[in-house]
Specification:
The protein has 212 residues and is of the alpha/beta class. The chain has nine helices and eight strands. It has an eight-stranded parallel beta barrel, surrounded by seven helices.
């Protein structure tokens, strides 16, 4: 297995500078990672840096809280794709899920997927540290039914990151027809191997170079 191609090399800190994004892209090219994951404001810079490589540009939508209006998330996703993003990681409205408003959550995912098109990968960030097992199962099924490509554990900005238990539950729920991305707190090669064994087939980490 090419472990480098599991990694979304990530820099989402609000204090990240353009110079740091360029370094991120250079590292991604050096190690031939699957993508770099950057905030929407840095999509054009990342696209320019990676234009002669196979490394994709991934961005985050409604990040990190997920509490934007659906219309705002859709517009943000469309703008990012128009600027060259090839993958979109969106945060669900966690409060709506916890309130049992599954229709809202599912429709939002579906609308974003329809807006960006089938050729753009959509990953749905659940923020598993804030959810019960039952809620994780529900939202995984909502994401699957809405046509998303991946479910993803975490933003890395909440009370916890990826856990083996959450990744296992997500994989069991979606089966083999969807991707599972583990993100948040994955810092070593050992961490990566544990997440892969649990069922993850994509890893989000700011420590990609160290892991490889």
């Amino acid at each position: 297995m090419k472990y480098n191609k599991l990694i979304d090399h990530t820099l989402l800190k609000p204090e990240a500078t353009p110079e740091q994004i360029v370094k991120l892209c250079e590292e991604a090219k050096q190690f031939d990672f699957m993508s770099v994951c950057v905030n929407p404001a840095y999509v054009p810079l990342a696209v320019a840096c990676l234009k002669d490589s196979e490394v994709k540009v991934c961005t985050v939508i409604g990040f990190p809280l997920g509490m934007n209006l659906t219309k705002t998330k859709i517009e943000e996703a469309i703008l990012s794709v128009n600027q060259g993003a090839q993958e979109v990681d969106m945060v669900i409205n966690i409060g709506m899920l916890k309130a049992g408003n599954d229709e809202y959550v599912g429709e939002e995912i579906q609308k974003i997927k329809l807006a960006i098109g089938k050729n753009i990968i959509l990953k749905v960030i659940l923020e598993t540290c804030l959810l019960t097992d039952e809620e994780i199962v529900r939202v995984c099924l909502l994401a699957k039914n809405a046509g998303a490509d991946f479910v993803k554990t975490s933003t890395g900005f909440s009370t916890g990151g990826a856990t083996i238990e959450a990744v296992k539950l997500m994989r069991e729920t979606v089966g083999e027809s969807m991707g599972v991305k583990a993100s948040g707190g994955i810092r070593t090669h050992e961490d990566l191997l544990k997440m892969v064994e649990a069922g993850a087939n994509r890893i989000g980490s700011s420590n990609g170079a160290k892991i490889i």
